[in-house]
Amino acid sequence: MASVYYTTPIYYVNDKPHIGHAYTSLATDVAARWKRLEGHEVFFLTGTDEHGQKVEKAAQDAGMDPQAFTDRVSGSFRELAERMGFSNDDFIRTTEPRHRRACQALWEELLRRDEIYLGHYEGWYAVRDEAFYGPDELVERDGVKYAPSGAPVAWVKEPSYFFRLSRWQDWLLQFYEENPGFIAPASRRNEVISFVRSGLQDLSISRTSFRWGVPVPNDPAHVMYVWLDALTNYITAAGYPDTEAPRWRFWPADVHFVGKDIVRFHAIYWPAFLKAAGLEPPRRVFAHGWWTNEGQKISKSLGNVIDPLALIDEYGLDPVRYFLLREVPFGNDGDFARAALAGRINGELADTLGNLANRTLSLIQRNCEGRLPATSPGTDADAELLAGLAALPATVAAHLEAQEFHLALETVMAGARAANGYITVQQPWALKKTDPVRMAAVLRHLHSALRVFATVLQPFMPDTMAAMLDQLGVPGEARGLAALSAPLPEGTPLPPPSPLFRKIEASA
Ligand code: ME8
Questions:
Q1: Is residue 291 lining ligand 1, measured as CB closer than 6 Å?
Q2: Please, which residues have CB within 8 angstroms of residue 80's CB and are 6 or more apart in sequence?
Q3: Is residue 91 in contact with ligand 1, taking CB distance under 6 Å?
Q4: CATH no. for residue 457?
Q5: Å from CA of 261 to ligand 1 middle
Q6: Per-residue pLDDT tens digits of the chain, which is 508 residues long
Q7: How many domains are contained in the chain?
């Protein structure tokens, strides 16, 4: 089995977590849990991005020392990870000594290879994005210049170290060509390629006008540009600069999960930094889209920021996890609408999956003395249901390999709809008196279907699927994908079922 390395972005600690943070990490969590279910060894990393002008300013605004401030806000991201059930194996903070060491080692390696030189920067900078912009990228409104993201920019003029990014333009284009899966989805790939084709300038990678960052080795007037510092987290956690460290076997990362706004950093600067330092680039950068709230852009000034913890309190963790990955194709922008949330929870989780489980398990409880009926050869309808079930895990796996979370879930829902069609036609409740042998066979097939659905849905809804597998009598050691090929023994006792999902009010 392979080693798999998945990462989330590390989040700025200028403010508390919102739905966007929960979303990126949730997708990464599901991908990681799936790989573990397949039997792979997984390293799943998340954490917080704590340096830079934006965080320093947020600490000043809060009247706090930056370290105390980042300790506090980083704690709220840790809490989010716990409350959302994320299964991360590490949580990195860029203010940790291991990270400062990695950044300085990378810097020295780049310097040694003549990839860094000292110069003078003069140009536009957006603190909100922590990014430099060329004059032709800006728009002007009421005499103020803005970056394409809407962040205001300011003119910066200071001594600066530069990374020889221009050197890597041709290599990058060739790298994208040879690795067509490196940037996904395809629309993002095209965007990146055309940006690189338009010409890369050397990149300013140090600042002298503030102090909150990793000091540049042997030149303490400079702190490292926060994006060089931040991106390095992915190798810090793998043990860099110690390439003999046990965790180094996970590098290169398999997927960096990111939002569409930070593709440029991950797909251009990051592979160039790595290649320039003689390290391997990551295998894939997947950029998801952005959420709006009931059709409106989410922003603090509009007061419509969605707090993921409040959502969980209101609807329960697993329904929220399900909805976020079900509603919108991963990679597209999507709208968070309460009516859509209610539609998915009520129509799919409660009516389609929950109801099927409840009907089947209640009938087994009542009519089969709560014991699992035997498997038996069956009718054409049985064969069709079973063939669909046998193919389902591989289809889900293929979708997840391509980060198509919504299609993975649609595959399971299609299976659940087919099983509902089967129960409606077979009417096991009517067979008790007329043909109890057939009734038992039908209930056993439905049980097999439910076991497949619950097994493959574990990464999406860990707690509820654990409860469903308990009700199905599946022991803990038989919950992996490989165990699906071994049927549970006839006569396995099943506990009395209870509803797995509750319906919610559409207007809540
Ligand atoms: O960018 N919908 O951190 P960050 C979906 N520190 N995703 C959203 C969103 C929305 N409305 N708003 C924000 C950083 N996001 C850097 C990363 S990695 C080496 C450094 C997503 O806290 C956004 O797309 O500003 C991004 O992926 C993530 O939240 C983190 O944003």
A1: yes
A2: 17, 21, 22, 25, 86, 308, 309
A3: no
A4: 1.10.730.10
A5: 7
A6: 789 999 999 999 998 999 999 999 999 999 999 999 999 999 999 999 999 999 999 999 999 999 999 999 999 999 999 999 999 999 999 999 999 999 999 999 999 999 999 999 999 999 999 999 989 899 999 889 999 989 999 999 999 999 999 999 999 999 999 999 999 999 999 999 999 999 999 999 999 999 999 999 999 999 999 999 999 999 999 999 999 999 999 999 999 999 999 999 999 999 999 999 999 999 999 999 999 999 998 887 788 999 999 999 999 999 999 999 999 999 999 999 999 999 999 999 999 999 999 999 999 999 999 999 998 878 999 999 999 999 999 999 999 999 999 999 999 999 999 999 999 999 999 999 999 999 999 999 999 999 999 999 999 999 999 999 999 999 999 999 999 999 999 999 999 999 999 999 876 4
A7: 2
Contact 316, 350 (CB under 8 A): no
298 Cβ below 6 A of ligand 1? yes
255, 289, 323 - which closes a domain? 289
336 pocket-lining for ligand 1 (C-beta < 6 Å): no
Strand (E) or helix (H) holding 336: strand 334-336
Q: Tell me the pTM.
A: 0.96
Tokens 């060089």 sit on residue: 228
Both 275 and 166 in one domain: the answer is yes
Determine the Cα–Cα distance for residues 34 and 327; give it in Å rounded to an integer.
19
Same domain, 375 and 469: yes
Question: Do residue 270 and residue 400 come from a single domain?
Answer: no
The sign of the torsion formed by the CA atoms of 167, 173, 178, 179 equals positive
Give residue 286 CA to ligand 1 midpoint distance, Å: 13
Same domain, 281 and 360: no
The closest residue, in CA terms, to atom 15 on ligand 1 is 20
Answer whether residue 151 is part of any domain.
yes
- Report whether residue 24 contacts ligand 1, using a CB cutoff of 6 Å: yes
Residues 219 and 343 in one domain: no
Q: Compute the distance from residue 101 Cα to the ligand 1 centre, in Å.
A: 25
Instruction: Report how far apart, in Å, the C-alpha atoms of 397 and of each of 31, 35, 43, 353, 419 are.
Output: 10, 9, 18, 20, 20
- Spatial neighbors of 218 by CB under 8 A, at least 6 apart, are none
* Residue at 430 is within a domain: yes
Residue from 6, 7, 12 whose mutation best tests the ligand 1 pocket (most atoms within 8 A of CB): 12
Interface confidence: ipTM more than 0.95 = yes
Range of the domain at 154: 3-289
Q: Look at residue 297 and tell me if it is in a domain.
A: no
Chosen domain end from 259, 289, 319: 289
Q: Answer whether residue 38 is part of any domain.
A: yes
